[in-house]
Give the backbone structure.
Amino acid sequence: MAQVKSSVDIVGLVGEYVRLKRVGSTQSYTGLCPFHTEKTPSFRVHANHQFYKCFGCGQGGDVFKFVQEIERISFYEALKQLAERSGIPLPQRSGFADADTRLRAAILQMHELAEQAFRASLAGPAGAEARAYLDRRGIAAAEIGQFGLGYADRSGQFLTNLLQRHDFPADQMEQSGLVMRRDGGGLFDRFRNRLMFPIHNESGKVIGFGGRALSENEQPKYMNSPETPIYRKSYVLYNLHRAKEGIRKEDRVVLVEGYMDAIGVYMSGVKEVVASCGTALTTQQVQAMKRHSGRIVVNFDPDAAGANATEKSLQILLDEGMHVRILELDGALDPDEFCKQRGAAAYGSALTAAKNYFYWLADRARSKYDMRTADGRVAAFQFLLPAIQRLTDKIERSAIAGDVAGYLGIDSGLVLENFRKAATDRREKTIAAPAEPVRHDEKILLNLFLSSAEARESIIPELRGLAAIEKFATWRIFQALFTLYDAAEPFGLAELDARLEEADRAKLASIAFAGETKEEDLSLALGMACLEKLRRQTLEGRIMGLKASIKEAERSGNTAEALRLYGELHRFEKSQRVDSVQ
Ligand SMILES: [Zn+2]
């Protein structure tokens, strides 16, 4: 586990899911949190500490924790995924994994087998009809290979037999969603006589399939895998694992409806394209895109269904603070047809020229309401209002409201009044700053201990005996740190964080992430100076304590006790003088 951890750089790994920016010339990086909705980044990743922390929602941890949270998998699966990525062989320990983890591993394996089998079947004699269809749609062999397209044959037993030959138990086969059970009891393939599109998760593993019917009277035209332990539809976007690099590079997402559209657009050179897998767009899907770019062009089919889907998606996209433009292609062409007929360059310029969403909405409002009457214009404005109110940026909101009013020929006073009524300011929640002030020496020592084993060895043994540190605002963090030090486990921010309560976690993270600016100042000498100061404070505290006890004893007439304490004070002061002469 330590070997896997040290072979993965957290900045590189997190950077595959979140756009990160380096903070100045520090070891710290910042970006929009993938675990909650925000407009200003409060998510940080620290290269030296190999640790991430969100100062908005409090999420934090090491590489394993990050992969667990973002892929929603168990610790064991995260370990396995990172080990594979680094080419480190893991001992076969599936016996240690829980039943859910074993089930998910089996289902993943079935999907891998299914993808290979569908591919082989498309290339073989049974796949002739499917190949002819792809040929008509202008999809060449290279693209078939790149997108892993396949064919599920007519027999209904093709995959079932294959999985049985691999000794998967029947209940696991059913739970994979690839196989169904007849009323009479027998198992058969879910997908029959369909062109198969593998659906991948963000790290590129096949987790489901979309199947397109090959004959026109076969219904439904598209059939997808059901929800399974590895396929949660609301989280998945088709092609995201291939597109994410392009999305970052172009700083925009192109969202289309279908698999064929995504493939066609991608092949035309627009690599930042994803498709919702035949479901209405969800918040989780928008969040997955937004980790890579906050700008989107929605390019759905040019029919009524496409327009309705666009309108619905718009609300979710605006809720998540995306910058939305909408592309309607001329000639009533869908994206795939457009790319084929007009070429990649024409599609590229259409994307660049795509209209801001509220013009599209205003056009829709104009076609729905009678704009010649005042009532119609107000109704049109009411239609637009919710979308505008979803804008989280106040200034942008009123600017757009003004523009829309102008576009529809409405009095701008009416617009402003509507806004005042409905003014709902969302404030992004942030963790409250720690109440007790953290002293400079606490910060120095914590950062020093987190970065230097030598400093831990030289300072901790004496430091932990000093009473002065019990006054630290970070006393509980120091206590946990000492226990960790004794345990001789790997010592780092993640390990320390794991031993703390929530409030202390936030405190520790803010110290660790603020400390990096002064890293060059952190030295053993500085730590020793802190230690010396604390040593003195402890002594002074002891002397003051003794003096107070003496006064107390004198006041209550306990002369014997007062004399004893005097003696103790005297011996103590003398011993300290001898100490300091040495
Ligand atoms: Zn967060």
